Structure formats: C-alpha cells, structure tokens
Amino acid sequence: MSIQSLSVIIILLLHEFESAAVSQSPDFQKFPGYMRPFIAQEFVRKTAYRLSKPLIGDDGRIYTCFERNLFAFESNGSIAWVIPLNYTCNMEIAPVCDDKGKMYLIAENRVLKIKLQNIGNSESAAEVFFGPESTMGGSDEIVGLSISMLSSSIFINIKNRGLFAYLLHGQLLWSAGPVLYRFGYRQGCKRSVTDCYFTSGPVIDQCEASIYISNSEGEIYSLSLFNPHFKWIQDFSAFDKQLVITPGNNGRVYVTIPVRALVFALDASTGNILWQNGVGPLSTAECSPVVDSNGWISIGSLDGFLYSYSPTGVLKKFPKETSLDSVIQVSPLLDCSGYAVYFSQVEMDGKISRIIGEYTYVSAMKPINAVFTMLVPAIGAIYWKGNYPGQLSSLLLGSDLHHFALDERILLAFVAATSEIYSFLICDFL
C-alpha cells in the first residue's frame, strides 16, 4: 500500500537551531497530522515573542502581529512601524488587504480595519469594522475572512452563524447559512442539519466570481460573490471532513484532504471532479498548496519533496533527489511574478517514518539546517537557493527580527520578500 493512499499521523517534535526547546507540550488531539514547526531563534525570555501568520504586501513589506500589536517589517528585517490594536490578533489567519490602502485582520471576535494612510499622523489607524462595538454587531468566533475587489466586498465566516458579505463601507450585502431550501428540496448538510455549519474561511475565485467554503460534514459549496445562492455542492465526506480549498483562477478549484494526503481538481463551474492524485504525508490540517500563473498546484510533504501537478494532473516532484532526513513542513509561497514558488526543506536529525495500519508516523529529534528554494514548477527551473544557518543567518542576527522567535513560515515569508530580483529574471525569461 502506497503512502499516498494512507491516512496520515505525523508526530514531529522539533527543537530550535540555536537554543533550548519551547516548554509547551503539543496537543496531539487537535489533528492527526499535528506537528510543531521549528524555531529558528528563541528570545531569551521565557515568553517567546511569537509572530502570527504573515501577509506579504504589494509594497514588499511583511505584515504580522505579536499579541495586541501589528508590525510592518521591511524585507531586510527592520521594523517599519508598529501600531497597538487593543485586541489580540488571531495567530493562524493572516491579514488581508484591499486596493485602497486598507487592511483587515481578525483580533479576538472582531474584524479590525487598518487605515495604512493614517499611520504616522494624528488620525487613528485602527478601528473595529465588525464586532460587538460596531453597528453590525457580532460576538461569536470568526473562522475566516477574505476580500473581493470585483464586488468591493469583505466576506466573514462566523462559527455557527453563517457567511456574511459586507460592502467595504460597512453595509450588509447578504448572508448565507449551510442549508438552503429551494422548491421543497434541501441543499447542503445532506446527512444532518443538526450541528452543521461552515468551518473554513471563505475562498475567493476572481475569475469565476465565486466563493468556496466547506461545512462540518465534509461538503464544499460554490456561491456567487453577489448573492447567497449555491452554484453547486460537492460531497467529500467519504474521504474526510477536514478540507483545504485552493482556487485555481483557471477554471479549476483544488481540494486537499490532509489526513488522506489527497489532492482533487474540480471543474469550477460545475464542481465535477476532474482528477485526483496523492501526495506524501502532510504536516498539519492547515498545510495548503499554492497555484501559480501557469496553473500548476504545489504542496510540500514530510517525505521532503514538493509535489507539483499540472492543470491536467501530471506530476513533477522537486528536488529530483532529496535526503531521507528532509521534511517540508509549511505551505509554499508564490513569488511576486506569480510563476515561481518558494519552499523550504528542513534536514532533521534522527527522522524515522513508520507505517502502522492505515497511518504514517514521522518522528525526528531536531533540525540541522533549512534550505530555501525558488523554482518554476512548469519548467522545473531552480532560480535561487539559500541556507540557514548560512547566508540567511544575517537576516536574523543583523535585524530587528532577532527579538522574535521565528518559525519556518515567517522565515519563508522574508526569504520570498527579499528575493525580488530573481522575480524580474523570471518575468523576463517567461
């Protein structure tokens, strides 16, 4: 039986490169594929200054939170500015931006709007866009949000309440729950209406003018940006209920089932399955792929390979050869050209993979080094490589980043932001 067909449990305990391990113990009950990412550097105090999931802005800056503060970093690791928010940021959901200089982020049970043009002057830069203090109300857990400039709207999924579409000036456009009754028939929550709710963040497909979202029963919905009617519903409950949705913006939408290590390509207009293929074991339920401008979908695996599939399902694995002790733990990132992806491989000391029943167990003692790579999957060309420890060490030690405990996804974001020169080479070549 191949690894690709197996359910995956990953128990990967990682220590940092240069200091003692964080004392917190992992909660293995959250997801069978739980792992803790490596820490490149730990701040000397007991409470590590851990940064949230970052956003790479169009201006080349990296935006990320620490507790109740929003930081903007230059690509060289220096702090451009920091503003207080009064609320604690969500660590696992990155901010989003519109094209008018506004940023939106989740903090506690609120959506905050950051007016970037007000930073540095006397006007307030942060305000509550959605929450108990706003005219729109709201007090429940916010699962995710996204923005569409096509409809000038922000979409907010509130646990147990539904999906809400607001115009960017604050007016409610529409709302939708996971069940819709039309012509006497029920759509959505096929097995049970009880305790059925939307569980994923809303995902925007700009080319199809669609929103994709999944529910707690393992169903995926396609909705219009402009109204709450369901275009189609596809049921994946036979595989698992935890799904990761990735828009192709090329007539396809991709669904990853982490616990099964499977990737599906769906027709974006009908929801019909075009192809399905396996990948190596994945690290967490949040490990998501990216789709580049050539239509290739790429995702990293704990077997050390980056799996890239063409729009028709043809597989390429990168690198062609990899160390048995290597793992890829975090989602790859697109570079600003849209054609290349960045990914990171970590070489582990004492990595062991075992197949027991229907599960793959991966364990390791500690990381030795990390290799960051920029490549174009469609042509298999590698444009850049960097190492930590190595030439990337100065990014940590010689900048404001040395004040923070940096995990792999933060490092990868800075690597992507600091390598823009290679993007110009790719644009000229392609």
UniProtKB/TrEMBL annotation:
<feature type="signal peptide">
    <location>
        <begin position="1"/>
        <end position="23"/>
    </location>
</feature>
<dbReference type="InterPro" id="IPR015943">
    <property type="entry name" value="WD40/YVTN_repeat-like_dom_sf"/>
</dbReference>
<keyword id="KW-0732">Signal</keyword>
<protein>
    <recommendedName>
        <fullName>Protein GAMETE EXPRESSED 3</fullName>
    </recommendedName>
</protein>
<dbReference type="InterPro" id="IPR011047">
    <property type="entry name" value="Quinoprotein_ADH-like_sf"/>
</dbReference>
<dbReference type="InterPro" id="IPR018391">
    <property type="entry name" value="PQQ_b-propeller_rpt"/>
</dbReference>
<dbReference type="InterPro" id="IPR045301">
    <property type="entry name" value="GEX3-like"/>
</dbReference>
